[in-house]
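Data card: per-record layout.
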Amino acid sequence: MMKKIFILFLLYLSITAQSQNPAQQVKEFDAYVESSRKLYQVPGLAITVVKDGKVIFKKGYGVQQLGRTNQVDTQTLYACASTTKAMTATCMGILVDEGKVKWDDPVIKYLPEFQLFDPYVSRELTIRDLFTHNSGVGNADFLWTTMNISSDEILAKMKMVEPSYSLRSSFIYQNIFYLAAGKVIEKVSGTPWEVFIQKNIFEPLSMTRTFPLLSQVKDVNQSHPHYSMNGKITLIERTSADAIGPAGSVWSCADDMSTWALCMLDSSKYKGGRLLKGTTWNELFKPQVMVTANQFYPTAQLTKPNWTTYGLGWFQQDYKGKKVNFHTGSLAGETAIHGQLPSEKLAIYIFGNLDHAEVRHALMFKAFDHFALGGTRDWSTDFYNLYKKLSEDSEREKKKQEAARVTGTNPSQSVTNYAGTYTSPLYGELVVTLQDNSLLISMNSTAKATLDHWNYDSFKGYYEKRWWGQAIANFAIDSKGKISSVVIEGMKFTR
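The structure for this 495-residue chain is written out next.
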């Protein structure tokens, strides 16, 4: 009996030693990443994992573009998208350390021209508020996605965007305020944000393959965006975030993100110095605002955090009793995620080239388990099933809306009467032209769609960029019986 127990004990030690063998760990994780990539049908991934001050895993998978043979490697350039926000917060932290700005200074001290719909908010908004998504002003991404206007014009139009709730009363994601932060950085430092971030972060860290703007990316070793349409993975047009650069325009690769991840994990230290004072680095990761469940990621349905917060450019939650700092990045057809498990000195960065492929979350939590916390949960399969269900729920909701359509109706006017030019001081210009019995709409010559009669005075169809989904135009008739205005996705244009 004792001999049997002894043999079992030796077997346990052998298995434990094997599971803790770094080479074996890497091999197992490598295989898991590739199987996960195939499950989610992501054409190409790039990933790096750092721990205890070292890069312990770094690799590219798949191809840069479907139909071609160019393999992804650790030098392949990808869009960092909203993981840029942590970099912009670090830029502001550098200026805080230099005594040129304070987190709780009013924004109008530096940008008196930056006015919001509510004069009280314009007066009270602080530098800190620019980073925490709690200004009360809702999503205003139409200003850069459907309009071809300058950054200054985008900020000027914010005065016309009505608030969704009162200042600091809740959380709603807001990209434009990071653009405002970039303008403060420019005003205080005397150099544009894209120059400041290059000189103060990328150059000190020797991030030679990191670019502040898409317009600066010329290297052919770059990923291309893809979208799943009708069950087929398709190459799509790239989206530029240069107009709101500080919110999401940086491009980089796994090699450089290894350096960035190590720096951010180790209190902003790098070989030869540090980017921030310790107190300022701590401020970036201190929970600033609570994030409500409906504003957090669906992944919480499985990770079941006790709390969810936002720091300065970082989402936060607890996982297995440990604090996690992370942020995703998403542009059409392109994804990223940067995750930290500070207590274990572990961080991961993942790039992907398939729209909202949530394998990024799966690999982040798998890395936390595999390299630090233990556990064998198959996060890729579990998250895949979760998002599949959410997608199916969304499709059912669309079918309900389709079923609610009132059939047998006709437009109240001749279709030709709907054609014309409609304008809005906030949303720009909408041109409606007639083609057979369909309406062709062009919003600021950027967002285009073909609409057919839906019911009554509503027309519905797909955007030319199919990954934008469907558009519904609801026309209104004035007291004189003339078509006076049209509303598309909450945006009202008048004749």
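Known properties of this structure: The two ends are 91 Å apart (CA to CA). The chain has 14 helices and 22 strands.

See the next section for split statistics.
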